[in-house]
Amino acid sequence: QVPLVESGGGSVQAGGSLRLSCAASGYAYCRYDMTWYRQAPGKEREFVSAIDSAGTTRYTDSVKGRFTISQDNAKNTLYLQMNSLKPEDTAMYYCKSCSQYWGQGTQVTVSS
């Protein structure tokens, strides 16, 4: 059973929006340990946003005010609402849970 499955990626123009989803198998869903990462071509994987202890949300500076992380515990699903997208947001987006499980990624491409 695959632990995490991301979806919702696609190609949009700058200024557009996308909503990523990360559906977790029951054993791979940790309510307070869910994270989004991204990796652009030729670059290292980087932190984007997380929900951690007591439901605290964190964001990397470059996405603050544009991205919103949320979760639906009844569906074991993590979301990332991405607004005002920029070409520099182009990357493969990955979900990580329970400090150990990774999804296969979903591609986001933003054109100028």
* SS elements, strand count: 11
Shape annotation: globular
Return residue spans where pLDDT drops below 50 for at least 5 consecutive residues: none
Class from helix and strand fractions: mainly beta
Order of helices and strands: EEEEEEEEEEE
Q: What's the total helix number?
A: 0
- The gyration radius over C-alpha positions equals 13 Å
Estimate the mean pLDDT confidence.
Answer: 96
What fraction, in percent, of the residue positions are helical? Answer: under 10%
End-to-end Cα distance, whole Å, is 38 Å
The main sheet comes to:
7 strands, mixed
- What share of residues are in beta strands? over 45%
Describe the overall structure:
The protein is mostly beta strands and 112 residues long. It has no helices and eleven strands. Strands 2, 4, 5, 6, 9, 10 and 11 form a seven-stranded mixed sheet that branches. The radius of gyration is 13 Å and the shape is globular. The mean pLDDT is 96.
Helix and strand topology:
Layout (H helix, E strand, L loop, with lengths): L3 E4 L2 E4 L4 E7 L9 E6 L6 E6 L5 E3 L7 E6 L4 E6 L8 E7 L3 E2 L3 E6 L1
Parallel strand pairs: 2-11
Antiparallel strand pairs: 1-3, 3-8, 4-5, 4-9, 5-6, 7-8, 9-10, 9-11
